[in-house]
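Appendix B. One record, verbatim.
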Amino acid sequence: MRPGQEGASASALEGRIGYTFQNGRYLDIALTHSSYANEVKKNISSNERQEFLGDAVLSIVVSDYLFHTYHLAEGDLTKLRAALVCEKSLWEFSQALGLGDFLKLGRGEEMMGGRTRPSILADAFEALIAAIYLDGGIEPARRFVLGYIVDALENRDDLAFSDYKTMLQEIIQKNPEERLSYVLVNESGPDHNKKFLVEVRLNSNVIGVGCGGSKKSAEQAAAREALKLMGR
């Protein structure tokens, strides 16, 4: 091992992601930056090809989840997916995982702070998704991706429809006698993949229904439906 170029052990990363590889080569490639592969020059593969595949797997997993979870128009789904799979989001996921600690970097990239560089971490996260997919198929890759996506949908305030409730409230409060409420009408699914169905009511009248992976996201979807009915 060359000091400062290879990261922490891959087995420790397996513990963090909750997946054990049958073929460790996929994980090794995912963690190998092109700067390291070019420097060592021993027929070592960088993670660039796996990054390409991981991007596609990420897109289909997120698209499938959003399609089946949110009753939103195509344009809204596209915006929401873009917010979830952008470099900033993937960098945040990588930071939460501590992925930078495990990367293999060339000396120059190491000295330039490559372990925390957003573009490097985002690419490595996609390569890691591909590694899981190549080793175990779509289901473990889906579980890994959704572990981050569902949390992001529930906890982040800057995603595509995050202001729908505020927009609806601003419209309704122009009439002080009107009362707006959100009612949870159904909850289903296992703990790791809950589905919530929420109605938004104006006084006693249902003006929108939304489904989501959290109560917060379901309320946003319901508010969005109500706004559409109002022509907003």
